[in-house]
Every structure is written in C-alpha cells, then in structure tokens.
Design goal:
This protein is α/β, with parallel strands linked by helices. It contains 9 helices and 13 strands. The chain folds into 2 domains: about 100 residues, Alpha-Beta Plaits, CATH 3.30.70; about 150 residues, Vaccinia Virus protein VP39 (Rossmann fold), CATH 3.40.50.150. The strands form 3 sheets. It has a 7-stranded mixed β-sheet with strand order 9-8-7-10-11-13-12, sandwiched between helices. Helix 5 packs parallel to helix 6 and helix 8 packs parallel to helix 9. The radius of gyration is 28 Å and the shape is elongated. The protein starts with a strand and ends with a strand.
Length: about 290
C-alpha cells in the first residue's frame, strides 16, 4: 500500500496535536524545545545525550495518510505555517533503516553481518580471487546487478576461476549450478573447500579452456583473466553463452579496452556496460541471439 508522509510546521504545536487527537490520527512530534524540557526533567537519569537532538530547527509534526484520507489536510491547514507531502511505500517502512546498519567487526575474529547481506566466506590460498582487487570486485558487482535485475540466471561458468569466488557467488545469488575451469592443479581442492564454506557445490575442473570441448551453454559466463586471453577467448565465449545470456569479463587494463571491446563486438556480443575502477575495465556483454 502507498502512504503519504505529511510534515506539518505548526503555528501552535499543542493546538495541532489536540486537533489530531480529536481526529484520531497518530502523529510524531519533533520539537527541540520539548526535547530540552524532557532532558531537564530527566537529567538525573542520563550522563550524555546527542546534542543534535536540541539543535535549532523549526518544530514539525508528521502524520501518515492513505490517498483516501488526504482531505484531512484541509482541516489542518489553518493550524499550519507550512505543509509538505511525499509518497512512501510499505517496503520503505521495512527497508529504509537498513543502510544505517552495516557489518560490524568485533574483537579479533568476530563479525556481525546483517541478515540481508550476501556473505562470501573465502580462504583463497595461493589462488587469485579475494574480491579485494578491482577486477574481481567489478565482476562481483556486475553479477549482483544482473541477479537483482530479475534476469533469469540458472547456470554460470567461470573461465579461469582461481579461488572459485565468482562461481560461488553466482550460486549464492541464485544460480542453480555453476562450473569453474582453471589450469592450476591446486584449484579444485581450494575452490571446492571455499564452496563448502558457503554451503554451495559448483563443479571445479582443471581444464585448458582453449583445448577443452564445452558443449553446454550458460546463462552467465565470467572471464577475469587478462586482455590477450579475453581477445582470443571472445569467439569461444560467445558460443558458450545461452541466447540472451551474459558474458562478464575483466582483468583488462585501461589502454587495452578498445582492443577487447572490438574483439567482443566482432564475436557478436553487445556491450551492455563498461565499468572502470583504478584503470581496470570490466565489460558486461550480452548474447543477443534469441
């Protein structure tokens, strides 16, 4: 349901509150003078208060009305110096406070994490991919946007998967299955252990992505490698993406971006996003085939 948040700047706060009581309308008063009075009355019970509570500002009274109740405003207008209105939705009530609570580090190894955050537990060992480097971060953020957009992503493939972080994240965000390939012989053990930490089970294999025959097509394909390999890989990647699927690639330093983009578009991929961080580039491209 949609509500209207009405902020009233009263001529007389007491008179306005009395009128709202008579109309059986709930309200919230923000009046620094009232707060000062309360602090004075209760000063023996506190040692500290936030001085912003008593900062100089006009008194306001807030009420919340549905569209069908808005005619009440006309009854209140003689008691108001000014009235402001904005629309809020039910979900705003549930979620507006969330940005103010972030993960909290305590002691040496304790972390309190809000329940709505997607937590990725990782021990990368000697493999690349912690999320700390700009290229991995750009790929992770692109993946989150894609899943949050409502796009149907049931399968994911990570070419050159390292620690397994991208395949793991894809499953945490909603993919039903994910596969990771890398040439490092240590990869399957380390990446599988990381997956277990997160309660998901991608398939990890040691494969040369140019020599391997991959017949399956995926909704989402990652390649966080280097420009030369992505240029060479682009025609293969285009064939690995399902119709309407997405290829996310990074590991591209800024002065190689044009070469990589040309290789991607020449392979039939459409560039949806080109994101930059610390002179590293991440392309998000789509297979427009239907």
């Amino acid at each position: 349901m949609r509500y209207n948040e009405i902020t009233i700047y009263p001529v007389d706060t007491d008179a306005l509150c009395f009128a709202l009581d008579e109309l059986s309308i709930g309200y919230a008063v923000d009046d620094p003078r009232e707060i000062e009075n309360l602090l004075e009355e209760t000063k023996k019970y506190w040692d500290y208060f936030d001085e912003s509570l008593t900062a100089e500002r006009p008194a306001t009274v807030k009420i919340y009305l549905t569209d069908s109740e808005l005619d009440v405003i006309e009854q209140l207008r003689p008691l108001a110096a000014k009235i402001e209105t904005k629309t809020v939705k039910d979900e705003d009530w549930a979620n507006n406070w969330k940005p103010y609570w972030q993960a909290t580090n305590l002691g040496e190894n304790l972390v309190i994490v809000p329940s709505w955050k997607t937590v990725i537990r990782l021990d990368p060992g000697m493999l690349f991919g912690t999320g700390g480097h700009a290229t991995t971060a750009l790929c992770l953020e692109a993946a989150e946007r894609l899943f949050n957009s409502g796009r149907k992503i049931e399968s994911a493939l990570d070419l050159g998967c390292g620690s397994g972080i991208l395949a793991i994240t894809a499953m945490l965000l909603g993919a039903k299955r994910a596969v990771g390939y890398d040439v490092d012989a240590n990869m399957p053990e380390i990446a599988s252990a990381n997956a277990a930490l997160n309660g998901v089970a991608p398939t990890f294999e040691v494969r040369d992505i140019f020599a391997a025959e991959i017949s399956e097509r995926y909704d989402l394909v990652f390649a966080n490698i280097v420009a030369d390999i992505i240029i060479k890989l682009a025609p293969t990647a285009a064939k690995l993406i399902a119709p309407g699927g997405v290829f996310v690639c990074s590991g591209i330093i800024g002065n190689r971006a044009d070469e990589v983009e040309f290789a991607l578009t020449s392979s039939g991929l459409t560039v949806m996003e080109k994101n930059v961080r610390d002179d590293w580039i991440c392309f998000v491209t789509m297979n427009s085939e239907q």
